[in-house]
Amino acid sequence: MLAEGDLSQIQEDLRLLIRHAYLNVPFYANRLPHISESGDVDLDHFHRISLLTKNDIRLFRKELTSRDIDTRKWHYNTSGGSTGEPVRFIQDEAFDRWTNVTTKYYYQNILGIDELGVKKVVLWGSEKEILEHTQGLRSRALNWLTNTTFLNSFRMTSRDMERYVRIINANKPDLIRGYAGSLYELSRFIASKDLNIHSPRVLVSAAERLDRDRRETIERVFGARAYDFYGSREVDGIAGQCKRGSMHIFMFNNYIDLTPCNSSDVSRIVATTLHNYSMPLIRYDMGDTAIAGPARCGCGDHLPTLAEITGRAIDHFLTDDGTLIYGDYFTHLFYFKDWVRMFQVIQEDLKRVRILAVVESVNQGEMQQISEKVRLVMGRDCKVIWEIVDEIPASPSGKRIFTRSLVS
Fold first, then answer.
1. Residues of the chain under the 50 pLDDT cut
2. Sign of the CA dihedral 133, 138, 139, 142?
């Protein structure tokens, strides 16, 4: 567990990051107030820093990049995000190390399980496996070394799900991890077929909010407790649920502050990456909302908590033969498509998909490629309609959902 004294180190890490950004990142030169000539940072004014948005990263990626980036090992990453705004960003070796630290801390200290060593099944998405009918050698080797069986959840036919049940029962994993929606759909399939399924020690749901109805179905079918894990590609792990039900914020990885919305209980989740000096994201608006939890949880861990993540959902699309296509498959099709500012993929019926796109310019070649990849999973006779728009209307909650299925 994290000791109370360790929390003071988090503030020092925040000061060091802000000082680095002020001195080395052009975007922040006039954005970070109350830094003395000696470099001292007054955190009392931290909440006055303007929010950073996905659009800022897209428009000012060069200015957000640290001048000393070549002193680090770095790489590009990209995300469609739950608002459907594709964005490319830079992460480095230190960021990756802290990602691993966060994962280990959550499983070992909060859930009490050796995530790296135990036998596990991961129900996750692989666009490459669908498009190329293969899994990379490196991925297979890593799965073998970490005792992981990977099951592709981007496309799940009845035959796929029957096979997944057989694999889970044969492997008898201690841990099953997957997209919330995919775990739910597999659970529904198991219940509808009245199949027996191995009960793991721990179920972990990620990538979208695990609401009460889906949680109850998953837990009832698998006979195991399901825990919610919240994060994003931009900042990685943010919070994980403990056995008391609280979502513990990994403040040693990302400094999280909650900015109140109109409601007195609901706040915006604002994240600052503490260890990515190549492209610091300071007060980054996640586009998600949450309700604050108690400062101290009865589980004994000293990390602060969220009571509930109140916004995030990803739809599955349905084909005419009953195959479920996980919505995040379509998000991946827009990765590294810098000409697309915002998008939304809508399944209007079994054979018609409409893509709304706000673009910098029209790229007919890549539009055709995306359409082909949509038809690959939705059927060759699926009609893909592109609609170039000036804006994409937000949902009643204020979010722009990136995939929507209008098919029951």
1. 397
2. positive
